[in-house]
Amino acid sequence: MTALVEHIVNPTLIEARERPELIGGGFFAWAREKLFYSWLSSLTTLVLLAAMAKVGISLFQWAFLDAVWSVPAGPQGPITDSCRALGSGACWAVIREKYRFILFGTYPFEQHWRPAIVIALFVGLFVVSAMKRFWRIELAALWGLMLLLIGLLMWGGIFGLTFVSQANWGGLALTLIIATIGVAIAFPLSVLVALGRRSDLPFIKWLCVAYVEVIRGVPLITLLFMASVMFPLLMPEGVNLDKLVRAQIAIILFFAAYLAEVVRGGLQALPKGQYEAAYVLGLSYWQTSRRIVLPQALRTVIPPLVNNFIGFFKDTSLVLIIGLYDLLHSAQVAVAEPAWQGFGVETYIFAGLIYFAFCFAMSRYSQWLEFGLNMLRHR
Amino acid sequence: MIAETDPTTKATAVSIQKVNKWYGSLHVLRDVDLDVAAGERVVICGPSGSGKSTLIRCINNLEEHQQGKIVVDGIQVDHNIAHLDAIRREVGMVFQSFNLFPHLTVLENCTLAPMLVRGVARPDAEAQARAYLERVRIPDQANKFPGQLSGGQQQRVAIARALCMKPKIMLFDEPTSALDPEMVKEVLDTMVSLAKDGMTMICVTHEMGFAREVADRVVFMDHGQIVESGSPHSVFGQPRTDRLKLFLGQVLREH
Ligand SMILES: Nc1ncnc2c1ncn2[C@@H]1O[C@H](COP(=O)(O)OP(=O)(O)O)[C@@H](O)[C@H]1O
Ligand SMILES: [Mg+2]
Fold first, then answer.
1. Is the pLDDT of residue A25 over 90?
2. Neighboring chain A residues of B54 at a CB cutoff of 8 Å
3. Which end of chain B has fewer surrounding CB within 10 Å, N or C?
């Protein structure tokens, strides 16, 4: 009887019992089972292995063995001939020379410690926010405080810090600012829009529906273009919003429309009985939303929320089309100088690795969270 | 034994007059009249789909009636928000599916509304919640989450949660229908003890034993109408209509 139940619950057990070689056979048993079970599969495996080895070796050679790690300095800037010599691999010297530009853009060189601290603050803020034990209302206060501190560091102008206009912000620091402020404002906004979409008041409901549908129907590039070209035309004479602020507004509106749909999914998953129980206990609409509905609804949509954050982080790179020097654009512009022209691949790889580090961290975090939440649900 | 209550000498807790309700073209309540006196215990029974839930949900405006008049504790159920808020505060409800808040502990489930709605300070709300949890005989589960309790325990928490708002009237919508048979008794015992304390109760239930023990009146509904009403003894003992006879036959067969 119990054996039967086991079979139903765990089909791999059946497989293991009927084919004992699967158990404890180690790597060779696994390989024979999965990779070499027929002459066709063996052939495929061998061909693919050979191709992978070939590509891997060439890549390794290019990236490490033949790579040029530094170039001598000349009177008119660096001498990059060794990078251009026949048979030379990756020119990592360009990264050594330009990494500060890629990370901080055109921020004044001697003030680079300020955006460097800003990047560290962001990473710290992300780590703290990722920990469940800090998921309290105080976290929102911490975010407010941190964003204030970050603005203070970037702009300066007080406490003896020289003023730096946001026209000079750039690199990873700018990407983190745009992405984080985008999400930090878009997320609460999306919650309001999602609630509004389910409102009994027709005007609010249709306003929210129209907002979400219009923004979702338009590519982010279009929104950014409109923000940079159309927005100034719509503003009254003399009012001139900064380019960064306009891009930030477009990005917030774009993020919020997508997040609102995710949040709405969470709201829909909540059983009607929860609303009814709150109603008969006398809770008001906002009390019900804040204490009953949102804590449950948001918990269920954390994985898709994080997935959206990953997408948004990369989407911010589109601001380059309106001339902001974010991480990707800086990586592109870093090789504009004649001496370094042609080494864009290296700077793109560098920028790509930075994007990857952030996105991979978010992705792993989301998987870990999902696992933890499932455990909670099955408790 | 429960003291006899005489509806005529007591204030009216709930007055339902000529109430009609439709879902689209489906006529679910037809000219329903029902007066419940303060301290009275009324049991509503009837076949599935006869409109029992709809009727008691109209009392606290979970559903809206379209014709007729419902007055709860002297306040009319209408579109006035102040009226509805006042009624929600006076009427507690227990659902078939418990509807506890799964993300809050048992104690938090019981203190949330008193603190938010009645403005009770946390220590007082917690003391009161513990007292009610004691009454429903689960004082030691206060810090657990609803998901960690059995169905019977959850339903008793739901009763305690409703009582923490100190309602004048309690509505029960088939509180034991979703429970495993061995847990029905613990919930019914809680309800009996509540009835003995003089709470005004309107219960939709098919538990005839419970009805016999505590009900002042049993109301039989079918097709959105009140078909028969009277003491448990007369309704269960001498059914006058065929519909009630048929229903009683079915219920008795099931149990
Ligand atoms: N929200 C609703 N929309 C449409 N029809 C409904 C709704 N709720 C209940 N009904 C219908 O109204 C009738 C009465 O339902 P209900 O009051 O739940 O009956 P009971 O509680 O006696 O089983 C049933 O026919 C049911 O299908
Ligand atoms: Mg029902």
1. no
2. none
3. N
CB contact under 8 A, A282 and B93: no
Query: Pocket around ligand 1: residues whose beta carbon is below 6 Å from it?
Result: B 23, 26, 28, 46, 48-54
Using a pLDDT cut of 70, give the percent of chain B over it. 95
Query: Does A316 map to a domain?
Result: yes
pTM of the entire structure? 0.82
Residues A360 and A242 in one domain: yes
Helical ranges in chain B per DSSP H: 52-59, 81-90, 106-117, 122-135, 151-163, 181-196, 208-214, 232-237, 242-254
Question: For A274, which of B88, B92, B101 is closest by C-beta distance?
Answer: B101
The protein residue with its alpha carbon nearest to ligand 1, atom 8, reads B54
CATH code, A353: 1.10.3720.10
Q: How far away is chain B from the Cα of A283, in angstroms, using its nearest Cα?
A: 6
State whether B116 and A287 contact (CB < 8 Å). yes
Is the distance from CB of A176 to CB of A246 less than 8 angstroms?
Answer: no
Q: Is residue A86 part of a domain?
A: no
3-state secondary structure of A192: helix
Which residues, listed in sequence order, are joined to residue B29 by a DSSP beta bridge?
Answer: B21
Q: Which of A13-22, A237-246, A341-350 has the highest mean pLDDT?
A: A341-350
By three-state DSSP, how is residue A199 classified? Answer: coil
ipTM of the complex: 0.92
Given this model, what pLDDT does residue A24 score? 56
Q: Are strands B75-76 and B67-72 parallel, antiparallel or unpaired?
A: antiparallel
Question: Domain limits at A37?
Answer: 22-65
Q: Is the pLDDT of residue B2 over 80?
A: no
Does residue A122 sit within a domain?
no
Task: Report the C-alpha gap between A333 and A325 in whole angstroms.
Answer: 8
Of all protein residues, whose CA lies closest to atom 17 belonging to ligand 1? B51
The closest of B157, B101, B126 to A295, measured between CA atoms, is: B101
Token pair for B246: 């048929």
Question: At residue B199, does pLDDT exceed 80?
Answer: yes
- Residue A376 pLDDT class (50, 70, 90 cuts): low
Residues B135-161 have a mean pLDDT of 93
- Supply the Cα-derived Rg of chain A in whole angstroms: 27
How far is A280 from chain B, CA to nearest CA, in Å? Answer: 5
Helix (H, G, I), strand (E, B) or coil at A337: coil
